[in-house]
Amino acid sequence: MGDKVTISLIKADVGSLAGHHVVHPKQIEVAKKKLQKAKEDGLIIDYYVFNAGDDLELLMTHRKGESSPEIHGLAWDTFKEVTEKVSKPLKLYAAGQDLLAEAFSGNVRGMGPGVAEMEIEERGSEPIVVFAADKTEPGAWNLILYKIFADPWNTAGLVLDPRMAEGFTFRVMDVQEGKYIDLTTPAESYELLALIGTVGRYVIERIWRNTDKLLAAVASVTRLSLIAGRYVGKDDPVCIVRCQHGLPAVGEVLAPFFTPHFVAGWMRGSHNGPLMPVGLKDSRCSFFDGPPRVVGLGFQVADGKLVGPADLFEDVAFDHARRTALQMAELIRRNGPISPAILGMEELEYTGIVKTLEKLKDRFFKA
Ligand code: F6R
Ligand code: MG
Ligand code: MG
Predict the structure, then answer these.
(1) Is the alpha carbon torsion for 146, 151, 154, 158 positive or negative?
(2) Which are the contacts of 205, defined by CB distance < 8 A and separation ≥ 6?
(3) Which of 61, 125, 9 is CA-nearest to residue 304?
(4) Which residues form ligand 1's pocket by a CB distance below 6 Å?
(5) 239/116 Cα distance (integer angstroms)
(6) In whole angstroms, what is the distance from residue 119 CA to residue 331 CA?
(7) Cα 241 to Cα 12, 227, 319, distances in angstroms
(8) Known active-site residue 231
(9) SS3 of 67, please?
(10) pLDDT tens, residue by residue, 221-278
(11) What are phi and psi of 256, to 5 degrees?
């Protein structure tokens, strides 16, 4: 409450055009209308609706704080309305897929949609970057966020800006146990890496600046399969990062995407593939339902208003990264259904492969 502003990025796959390819323009239209109404009613200050492949992304600013039932309710109602008014009548693919619960119960966490939220004291100038990815999972941000906030080879400011000299604290969630741990860098960099290398289990949830506990980044950590106990699509993740003036510069925040890395979640949520940075116009998955893609949108938050977006990966500088990602895609696809193209068994245990293995179980014999 008060003067603080909360930035909420809530997303769900509620059906898409041509399989799991892209959000339909009518879905965006209906979502915008709903949020425009909420803006006029004074519930939210501002909003921006966009898509990451087949995921509908609702970026909202308001003064209700994190986990507000009103804001989460608005997001839930928007996803429901889009499903009823567009996805179902047009028979879009997997209509309402991520709405796991029958009825809203106060907070969309654990009900299907992915959430990244931060309540902040708006600075004199407040540049933020929001990232949204498709065909991957929250652990995809681990490498990115480590590089941005803990790697001087990526972020020159860690060396050159005294406000960052004390480093950052990372909150990591063990998504299997539902527990958190806070680790501080640079002192505990190796301990942090020891955890976050296992992307399917340990996921960075938020990051603070050590000098003054300023909240610097938040990411979604939902894992639908752990909620539903079966494969229900990947938890295409979102993330919000504050930039500049004693935090990593926008260019440092984008830098990790210049050298794409492999992430989990491609095709049937069961494959590894490169994370390809794209502009909004290319925010749709095709080849082998991918490759996994990420959009990066820059905004200035001004008294809670969202000035922007700047479509940051649209820039030609990222053509090179796209070519690299496609080369990586070509190489890993040579492996077909053989690891490391396909994920390890602990990740596949929520998929149909379990039934096949069950069927074969009794046919094993000792020679
Ligand atoms: C969806 C995804 C896709 C689907 C695949 C099969 O986010 O990653 O690769 O898993 O297209 O989808 P179904 O089983 O719905 O035919
Ligand atoms: Mg889908
Ligand atoms: Mg998706």
Answers:
(1) positive
(2) 171, 172, 173, 180, 218, 219, 221
(3) 61
(4) 19-20, 94, 135, 233-234, 267-269, 289
(5) 6
(6) 42
(7) 20, 26, 23
(8) yes
(9) coil
(10) 977 766 667 666 668 999 999 999 999 999 999 999 999 999 999 999 999 999 999 9
(11) -60, -25
At 28, give phi and psi (nearest 5°).
Answer: -65, -40
pTM: 0.96
For ligand 1, atom 15, name the residue with the nearest CA: 94
pLDDT tens for residues 248-263? 999 999 999 999 999 9
Distance set, CA 90 to CA 93, 96, 279 (Å): 9, 12, 27
Q: Please give the Cα distance from 43 to 45 (Å, whole number).
A: 7
The question of whether 13 is a catalytic residue gets the answer: yes
355 burial level (CB within 10 Å; 0-12, 13-18, 19+)? exposed
157 Cβ neighbours under 8 A, 6+ residues apart = 164, 247, 248, 249, 252
pLDDT tens digits along 77-120: 999 999 999 999 999 999 988 888 877 878 887 788 999 999 99
Which amino acid does the sequence have at 152? P
